[in-house]
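Ticket #4471: structure export looks truncated?
Reporter: QA, pipeline team
Priority: medium

Steps to reproduce: submit the single chain below to the structure queue and open the exported record.
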Amino acid sequence: MSENERFSTVDSVVFALSLLMSAGIGVFAAWQSRNHATTSDYYVGSKQMSVIPVSLSLLASFISAIAVVGIPAEIFYYGMEYITYVLSPLLAIPVVCWVFLPVFHRLGDERNITSAYQYLELRFNRYVRLMGTLAFTVMTFLYMAIVLYTPSLALSQVTGISLWLTIVCSGGVCTFYTAIGGMKAVVWTDALQMGFLFLGLLALGIGGLITAGGFANAWEIAVKGGRTQIFNFDPNPIVRYSTWATVVGGSFMTLSLYASNQSMIQRYLSIKKSSHAQIAVLLNIPLKIVLVLLLALCALVMYAHHWDCDPLLAGYVSKSDQIVPYFTLQVLGFIPGATGLFVAACYSGALSTISSGVNSLAAVFLCDFIKTYYDDRHSREMSERKATRISKILAVTFGLITIALALMCQLFSNSVVRVSKTALKHLYFP
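Actual output as written to the record:
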């Protein structure tokens, strides 16, 4: 590895600052809430959150390092069919806004619900509620583990630091600010981290275009390599990507995420007015489109550089998911701090997803298991101070479990995108 292809001291400082800023937001949120520790404040930000940060937080919840590292690698090897996924929010999100969101917002105002699965008990019975909670718990733990493992793999590739150390350190920072700051810390760190994510992708895309000789040249190389087919209407169900799968299947996936996922519903409830919450959700349509197009641009310039020399086949990397960080070092390694910014972008997507998952897991466990059992046993409701204290303990516990599961992800041989999609498709349902 040449001098320009190393993770420098400046890069380390940039990356460390991104983690410290996230931790600082958690400390500030905890300090703000020191005199009114309630579960409403901890789980829905006392319903006082603003549209823009919540919209960015909604985007961040499931746009993880899997997207930053995995999607460009998928496009690099298999072409542009994946980007038709950007059409799925156009179909699903309006349904969420005008069908599902008003229901949860009304229940939040009238019944003071926090867990999405409280609705299942109101609509059916407690057993259905517990089944939904258990499915969500298993899915979230699996997904968070993969999400934490992916950027740790990238950081290990560009720095030489051991994989287990990066998993433990980054997971520890995320658990810390989520546990002490609650929803306010989660939403504002998500907004900050989305800023890092967009800046990192822009830096890589622009840097790659400059070294590739411009967009026209990069596109011409991709055309010759058969990487520019976008629409594929082949009805064969076993093809890797087709327009039917990405648009129709992606719409149902988006619907399940935005209409019934606990992390999303907590954010809807964190905004006081239902109409403002709808605006926050609708803003995700253009944000998702821009993000996926930036990822496709990174894949395009990456292919323009390596169309005749696959880094995986050449032995420069050991897994396909390491191609993006390897390319980042090549393109941005000579700019002080640029590689650190991109690694921060990878981690931004991961930490936002993990913080959302940890906070929402704590919410469903408290509401669907602990408080239900406590109220039945003692014939009275648990005090807010005690419930908030238990919530923080749950957040720390779930963060530690996620770190342990991420350490086990080294056993997977498939790409992170395919592993995550396999886990999600078996456990998500509207």
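Status: closed, not a bug. The export was complete when the record was re-opened. Leaving a note from the reviewer for reference: The longest helix spans residues 163-212.
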